[in-house]
What we know:
Elements: E1 2-14, E2 21-34, E3 39-53, E4 84-99, E5 105-126, E6 136-145, E7 148-162, E8 165-184, E9 194-195, E10 215-234, E11 239-254, E12 264-281, E13 286-297, E14 312-325, E15 330-342, E16 344-351, E17 354-363, E18 366-380, E19 383-395, E20 409-418, E21 427-435, E22 441-443, E23 450-452, E24 458-468, E25 473-480, E26 488-491, E27 499-501, E28 506-513
Amino acid sequence: SVRGRLVAGTSWQDAFIDLENTRNSILYGVVDADLTAYTRLSVGASHQVDKRNGVLWAGLPYWYADGTGTDWDRSKTTATRWNQWDTEDSAIFATLEHELANRWKIRGNASYRKQVEDSKLLWMWGDPDRTTGLGMEAYPYHYLVKPKLVNFDVLATGPVRWFGRDHELVAGLTHGTLEGGWTNRDAVAPVPSFPVGDFNNWDGSFPEPALGPRYIGSHGRTTQSAAYAAARLQATDVLKFILGGRVSNWKREEDEGAWTPEAYTITHDNVFTPYAGIVFDLSEQISAYGSYSSIFNPQTKRDRTGKYLDPLEGNSYEIGLKGEFLEGRLNASAAVFRTVQENFGIPDGVVAANPTETAFRPDKGVKAQGSGMEVSGEVARGWTKGAGWTRFSAKDANGGDGAVDHARRQLKLSTKYALTGALQGHSVGGGINWEGKQPARATNPATGVMEDIGQEAYTLVDVMARYVINRQLSLQLNIYNAFDKKYVTRNTTWWGGPFVYGEPRKVLVTMDYKF
């Protein structure tokens, strides 16, 4: 009637990026106790420490000063030898669940989480000279972040019988507080930035500047509370409705700081966000569905005058088909979706009262829409396949592209085959991930002309093989990015296109022993 689990782990890893390495450790424990035949208590705690050295923070420059594109080694970095990004995360949590005689269940959850994030980082920007490597500038930061998060929620769920049919209801209350912000130390030297020197031969040997006293950049508290309810109604044998809603209260209290020259309070009370769905069984194997949900997300972004943006609001819709075939061994789905958002924050210069703060303008009518298909499961005995295709578009109110760092089309294929005969128990497989071109654009520093900087379409291939030695011991080989494709994973058009490269070929050998 009392069960426990203890997990301890540690790892060391050198990244493919120069200077960067990580050390992790985690300790996790949980105890479940059956207080009665119908009541269970679960309590636990976790502690995780991540130490990252030589962390690349700013991306690599996309252009040389003459306007031609760069082509760095994938290991190239903008980090220094003293860069660090260390985090320590501690949490405690508890759940009490009780089952009533009428098959209803009541569950309460409570959790507390505290994090300490200590990071010394060098931000670097500019367009270096192709020959000399000169032209890059940098500035150091020493951030310290100590957020604390407390959450409580209670919910009840269970069946009801109306008009001769069984339905399911759920209702709950939730409350949480987040206290957080950040402090920083700036360089003592009275200069706007530090010249980097020859970036073409950068090896991270940049002297750590003397830093001044720590100051509060931002500090505040966010409080959220909500009541919610949902019903899954079985209208007929083939028709089901899902109806729900949430009433939320949200409050942000921000103290005075370097990035918030004036203390403020933003409050949103009794905000109702509904959602609804319908499922219709076309046959024993195929169902059609549709869903609607509203969007409400408070913002602390400011425009150029210092006014805070109204909450992000909107609506999301989806319709599709889902199917189950081959006696449940194969699943398939297809869907189309559309999301419309108001007050979406678009970067718009700086705040007049605080030139270090990026300003945003609210954009209305931001739309994202697309479609997707997926098939997965066992197509024959011992042979599994998976295939997925998605495409979408994102437009702002003026018809321009949004979410420009994301490919508009993506295809994923995978397969795994369990060998038979003398090789029974062994298996081989592989996968293909294809992404289309990203529509990111930025201004060329030499010509002043907007150019495409998004990653071109590319394909990654993964392969695997598993070898079973005996009932207890097995070995598995995975090769990721088998053809060592060079590609970009991120563009940041706010800063003229800095980027990072995706991971090169990686070979992983895993041994499992069961006892």
